[in-house]
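Exercise 7.
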Amino acid sequence: MDRSSSFPARKLEHDSGGDAAAAPSLEHWLVGFCTIRFDLEQGQVVEECYPAGALSQEEELDVAFSSFPDSMANSRASKDFGVHDTVFFFRTQRRGLPLENSISRRSSLTRSTSTLPFKAEDQDGARLSIDSEVLKKKSNEKSVGVNGTAINGLGKGGQKYLYGFVFNRQRYDAKLKRGGEQKSVLVLSELPLYCVFKPLVELLGPLYFENGVAALEQAALHMSRWPRPRFGTMMELMLGKVVIKSHLPPLHTLPPGPGASRDGFTSAMAPVSPSNRSVPQSIFHDVNLYGVFKGLLGHLWTLWELLLIGEPLLVISPTPSQCCEAVAGLISLIAPLPCSVDFRPYFTIHDPGFASLNSCTEEDRIPPMILGVTNVFFLKALKMFPHVLSVGACGSLDRKKVAGKATSQGRLQKQIQLVRRLYPANLLARKEGPLCLMGEHREALWTTHSPATKGDVQVLNRLVNAEPSLCIEESTSVVNNDALRRHFLELTTNFLAPFGPYLRASTPQEGISPFLGPPPLPPFDALTFLEALAGRGPGKFLSKRSNTHWLNLYRQFLEGPNFMPWFQRRRAVAEQEQHRLWRDACNKADVRVFLRKMTEVEVVDSFNAVERHLAEEIEVSRESGIDFNKTNAFEKITGDLKAIFEFLPKDLQELMYLNPQRAKFLHL
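Solution. The predicted structure, written as tokens, is:
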């Protein structure tokens, strides 16, 4: 990505590109910008919020408390450097109503708000009904959610989340009170586009501290010219002299919730082949798995299972940046399966959901969630979590600098040891438990889960052998990351393969009339599926990498929160694809050829199917602003409908005319 030290010197109000006509494109990307200062007497203070009123009072509090480090790891390590910058991101639930008349901010921000209107869009996602007692039993269980409400299962949609990408600067100066100050610049969005907003805030943060509010104005000006997000494609987004080149993840990889309409959502989420490596398979595909988990490589397969079945997981790291990258890396580990559990890359004690979690007892069932924290206080407060992951190097200011000074040979020896010790019997400090981190941070995994898959020694050996052949450590990390991503993508794809027959669109066979309409997809029943799978086995790829407990992993996956939303999405895509294939077959076929071979019941069914097809095409044309009456499809469909109608007995024809809508179609 190209970088520039500054924006072109232009005023927002005098630039012809900053008019109201171009500005609405901003709302498709952002909720707004914020700058927050830590005041010694008042605490966190929101200095600017652009546009004014974009956040409710509750959201301003949530954003303010999530925008600063929650531990002293950065402070202790940064005092010798004068200035220390940290980039991280958080996720919090949207709540309250946006302020229509918010507290006055700086005039330079409020002045520009009228030209950049922001709106919020919502969508209630649909949920697929599956005939399975196992799933029904699980969905009826209630648990305490992060927001303190009862949860009947995740992935229902409707709940909005706010993603905040933070550039935090800590400046140490003996002349200042308490020897320093800190301030954060935020990019806020409802879209988890890590590949866009992380580089954006990395650019915008230094520019703000150099140029002040003008940097936010210029950023808003240039972003108002951006096209709408095109999911699943490469986009080049201009920000002054800078080009942010990012491949947006496909729409179906986004967490369930707000977004496009259901029809638009399903039409845009045609499955992408995992073998197509140019298309990202996760919203966090840019996270370096090897760089984040290089000290825990032997446990990646256990972590993959925990994420797959949606188990509650507490992730603790010394710094917010390490913490949020670890959570993002874990979510990307199960790609192309979207993560439907509630995840918080950076969670603090000030989060409104902390009180409800802190009040949980051992009898309460912790809902599926991934919490990333930096404060060791959580180890005591949330000791009911069954799985705890400690990741990251303590006291590391810059991962690349520290990695460059470390010797490769020492790390290689650690990797070799990890290859030989892959299972929970050798988890670090097993008897002492996670509370040992109160004294000293070290990378480890504590879990009650019995893994069904075995660590792939061949993959780990390839990582070990690759490093000495490269001179630049960053290049080694990229190569190893690519190898890990390919392996876990293949692992997840093979795990999901047995569900293929239930998600596969069918085409009309030769001699079968397409005018009867497509048959329904095969019904899915969890118990029947497990019985059939037990008989034929998990497949060659998984058989080599799993033990005798592999069927239980499928059972846990079916009962977990990730299955239903994924199955519903893929099912909707398959149904839509099947309808498209049958419509295409109808457009190419002569209905009169099939009418001669049909029974009276089949003729009626064909009439109803073509009638539905006509109604759907008229609705789609109306939404698209197309005159359907002037298209070739209109002539073909109406001609087929009239041909079938003429083939019906007279008494049925008279009955058909009693329906006003049907009579209208017949006279088109």
